[in-house]
Amino acid sequence: MKIKDTLNMGKTSFPMRAGLPKNEPIWQKKWDEDHVYEQRQKLNEGKPTFMLHDGPPFANGNIHMGHALNKISKDIIVRYKSMNGFRAPYVPGWDTHGLPIEQQLAKQGVKRKEMSMTDYRELCRQFAMQEIDKQRTDFKRLGVMGDWEHPYITLQHHYEASEIRVFGAMAKKGYIYHGLKPVYWSWSSESTLAEAEIEYHDDKSPSIYVAFKVVDGKGLLDTDTYLVIWTTTPWTIPANYGITVNPRFDYVQVQVGDKKYVVAAELLDRVAEEIGWENPKILKTFKGTDMDKMTAQHPLYDRTSLVMNADHVTLDAGTGLVHTAPGHGEDDYKVGVKYGLPVVSVVDAKGYMNEYAPGFEGVFYDDANKQITQALADKGALLKLDFFTHSYPHDWRTKKPVIFRATTQWFASIDAFRDQILKAIDTVDFKPSWGKTRLYNMIRDRGDWVISRQRAWGVPLPIFYAEDGEPIIEEETINHVADLFGKYGSNVWFEREAKDLLPEGYTNPHSPNGQFTKEKDIMDVWFDSGSSHQAVLAARPELSFPADLYLEGSDQYRGWFNSSLITSVAATGVAPYRGILSQGFTLDGKGRKMSKSLGNTIVPATIEKQFGAEIIRLWVATVDSSSDVRVSVDNFAQTSEAYRKIRNTMRFMVANTGDFDPEKDTVAYDELGSVDRYMMVRLNQIIKQVKTAYDAYDFATVEKTISSFLVNDLSAFYLDVAKDVVYIEAKDDPKRRGMQTVMFAALLALTKLITPILPHTAEEVWPYLKQPEAYAALADMPEAEQFDDESQLLDIWSGFMDFRSEVQKALELARDNKVIGKSLEAAVTVYPSEPVRDMLDDVDANVMQLLITSHFEIAPATTQAPANAEQFDDMAVVVKHADGEVCPRCRMVRTDIGTDPKLPQLCSRCAAIVEANFPDAVTNGFDKVGR
Q1: In percent, how much of the chain has pLDDT > 90?
Q2: DSSP string over 219-251
Q3: Each residue's pLDDT tens digit, 617-633
Q4: What's the start-to-end Cα distance of the chain, in Å?
Q5: Are strands 855-858 and 826-832 parallel, antiparallel or unpaired?
Q6: pLDDT (average), residues 661-668
Q7: Is 576 helix (H, G, I), strand (E, B) or coil?
Q8: How far is CA 449 from CA 523, 532, 730, in A?
Q9: Which pLDDT does position 931 carry in this prediction?
């Protein structure tokens, strides 16, 4: 027999190397085969519901790191809630309609105009479903648990039917109307855009000052006076029908050479410097209200422009007189309609000047800037041309600039129920809290919602037209269309004539001959996803409305959070969510947005192959996702190292509880040693802190708390101390079983607590815990216990840990001075103050063992510390090399080796243990080689 055979060295088949890239798919396959998600749902039947509603990603391409951050965050929450007393089903979703799929088909050579609309839309559907399968595989590879076989998809028949009914509810309340208004128009996509489809990039634009000669100055201004406007869109000058001034501002007529001009008084100096006026002389000062309904000659055409009053005019830039083209600006439109001006768009759908811009027909609008500026110069109306770079709206898909262009569109009125929406925001809990202000301001300031799109792939607007052009938006017709969509899908709109889409026997006084046509536009895709609260939450029996939580990127304050809120309040009167949790964007290591063109993208698949999905999940739990998050391979390398520490500590506990049967070996709390009770108290503090952090969606605190406890409390202290007991003492020694009791309790609780974040690792540990549940995911979260003596214990052990820290400093100095090597070579004598002396008495433990030294002594109170002692505030410490020899079994330096002649190699402690438990060693002795 070898000496090491008498030790309880922990043995386990739990591997040190995780092999995550290879082993994770094996676990995921088992979860699928054993229907773990479904089992968890069954276990939670009858419990309170927690509803996290999945915001649908667009079905196009493999997932990126932003998707991973989002889906893993949701999975952590759902897994935690499911293990902590809630029924928390998770139904993933996909957004499938819209321009990106049309663009992908075009890249593949599909020619939309050379096939029927239904055939084209079927190709779109097939492409979307293929992309869904691709993304579903990607999401499941991250370990995300959910009802993957029954997702919600915006192209599903029942979904489209629900969306039509949401539209019907809004129409019934009078919120839907048809109007000619300027909207964001993407000439590159040939479609209107929602505010959520706009992004801003720097763009170089012309800056021009133009003079409009007064025609009717209302007796205040002479006809030889010029009104000066400033614009950065010369191409809209042909659409000018007015000039707007602020009624409250002061304006001045100034003499510059032989010309007279009008600008805002406060802006005179700036304008004079910009244009190059020398010594302008003020002739008159008057209010904007005095200029109301003056007229001025259009600088290019034979018509006048009307001077109007409005409060949107500011003094931030320009001249205080605003060039007003009602067909090309929201404020322009509002004031123009108020004053009865025509609403004219001078560009077509592709961005080319049309017949309403005589002299520039057929010219691309951006090219027209130069031609129009030259025409103004030729007419003597151009006062100054310059160029500047500024932030300008672009189409988020094509990355091309957009324009404001008046088109006839279908709108959802926000004004009609804006106050109701704003009140609904007050019922929602926001994390971060600034989200409330952001969403509130967006709703407060937004215009009416353009819900029509001039595309093919989407849900048709369920609107008919009578013979005289009268739109038909009736409850009866809308519900009938919804029923048809529910049965056949929205393709039926393109397969049938209008009369075959109307209810049988339907008549309308505006169509005496029974002839009808149907709308060709489709719904804005934000109306699609924004209807999910009714199409999914309210429709599926296992779900409920409203949701407890929507969790998406911060861009969704103008996207899905926004559209969902509008449609929900319109249709149901309440917000679709009780809480919103928003996250920042994923950026590269240098803080740049990830893009293929920059070559700085990191896709989850790459990290999974190198490190494993578990490392991505742990990374998600370490970052502050409330703001933008930087991502680099180095991040994952560091996270992998943090994971290694977690795994190794848990492996140590697995190995050293292998012979522990919790049913018969557990030691009651009151019978545990002082250090063991202290660790039990600390463990329960950790349970409470971690669950509080989970409840607050504070994953970083969850990870930090668990990791700190594992690394600092357990690995660096308790488990290190435990080796001298768990390895050395007899298998069933009460002290050993006591420490195993603590280790097992910690391992069980921590495995449950890490399951939401590290499910693969938790399930790998789980079989070693001898629990009734087949999977960790089917267990419940631990409950924090309270102990009568915990306050006293924490005080005592807080003092001891301070004491230990000072002794460790003294040991380190002794190591540096070559007095000792390992701490077990040390003999420590302390000269404590009275409080420290009392604490060491109260700690009621083997201090030598806690310090992992071979000798420990407390000097008598009357003894003075020697000069070579290390001095601390509350004690002095002397470290010497311990006297004696190293016991080959316990590795301590002892002076009593050989005192038992039957086991002459061992110290008396080890000899007693071996004699009592290994009689063969006494009879036959130990092998000479090895410990």
Answers
A1: 81
A2: TTS-TTEEEEEEES-GGGGGG--EEEE-TTSEE
A3: 999 999 999 889 999 99
A4: 10
A5: parallel
A6: 95
A7: coil
A8: 11, 18, 77
A9: 44
